[in-house]
Amino acid sequence: MNPKLGICFALACIIAAGGSYGCHSSTSATPTPTPTATGTGPDTLYVQTAQGTTGGQIRIYQHASTDNGFVLAAAVLPTSDISNPDVVYSPLYNTLWYPSAYPLQSPGPTVSTPVRVWNNPLGESGQNPNALVHYTNGQGTASYDVTHDFLYIGNYNGPTIQVYATAHSMTNSSVPAANITLTINDPNVVGTPRAFELLYDSIHDRLFASDYGAVVAQFDNFGSQAQTAVTSHTNPTIPASRELSALFAPLGLAYDATNDNLYVSEHHLVNGQTIGRVDVIHNASTMSGPVAHNQIINGFTSGPTGMTYDGVRDLLFVYDGSVIWVIPNPENASGNVASINNHREIGDASVSLAGFGITVDTTH
Asked: What is the total count of domains within the chain?
């Protein structure tokens, strides 16, 4: 089973059993995040939820940097999808991509799985996607390269990254412009390497790829190499420049490119029990080898799963079951998430959230 799909259905089972992992009592107050926001632009949160067998949605919340407690979605995009993929957004083109993971049915993932594309997603509430692009063996993980206008999509069955060019104007008939094979050599890789999560840093032209085993690999000059592959119609193999290891099932990634802080959501198995935590890794772009786990955020209920970082306000949003934690000044945060100073929790007032994909827009 696709691990992201497993997360979705595990959470759905908790909801069905009446699990008490909703907002904690700390949501009765609305503390002011610290440090004070340095920008005044919008702060719209896009959250994927897979709701049982009826298919999922993308729920859109405005004013996310100040929301606390139960809120109502400003808009909802139907996906009719029970997988648990990323949500990817381009503020430059106001475009949203939703790359479905492969479905559950036997005999396996050798089927076509769509990436849904919405233009002006906040204004498309209730509307089907503007484009439905089909591809095979989708892992449900993707990242956007704003410099080259590329969408990178990971494959389930190996370390292949599909590159879609002119991504903001993809149509139903779009096909990959190039396929790139990632080489991850760390001995902690479990089985065939595959990109369980992708995160592209347009500031430094660097791709982070999280293998499900214990490794986050870094690929320098990635967008430039992808551009060469697209232009020359080649399918290159690109080795990792550095590899961070000694991680525990690194499911989600978020990155502060200005200060070079990488946030990794992990699921550590301790005495047969899965313990979720966020590993805070400083100077991530220059690190190689085992990480020290010196700074950990823990105390999550069933997650953490997906994460996203708001660089305008220095906020980390962490998906944890039906709760989205809002952590201010995350580079200095540690310990139990419910005890972090001025943290907040967002829950949906009309549905139970359960999923992985989450991203923030600070432009629209």
From this structure: 1
H/E stretch holding 9: helix 3-16
- For β-strands 206-211 and 215-220, DSSP reports them as antiparallel
Query: In this structure, is residue 65 part of a structural domain?
Result: yes
CA atoms within 13 A on the CB side of 89: 24
As a whole number of angstroms, the distance between CA 224 and CA 108 comes to 34
Phi, psi torsion values for 194, nearest 5 degrees: -155, 150
Q: What is the CATH number of the domain that holds 74?
A: 2.120.10.30
| 26 within domain boundaries | no
Nearest-Å Rg of the Cα atoms of the chain is 19
Which mean pLDDT values do the consecutive 10-residue runs of the chain (364 residues) have?
Answer: 47 30 30 43 86 78 91 92 91 95 59 87 93 88 97 91 96 95 85 88 96 90 98 96 92 96 89 87 94 94 93 94 94 96 94 92 86
| pTM for the full predicted model | 0.88
**Contact predicate 155/210, CB 8 Å:** no
- State the Cα torsion 81-84-85-86 to the nearest 10°: 120
Cβ atoms of 326 and 290 closer than 8 Å: no
Q: Is 233 left (phi over 0), alpha (psi -120 to 50) or beta?
A: left
Measure the CA–CA gap between 85 and 58, rounded to whole angstroms: 11
Is residue 90 one of the residues assigned to a domain? Answer: yes
> How high is the pLDDT of residue 52?
63
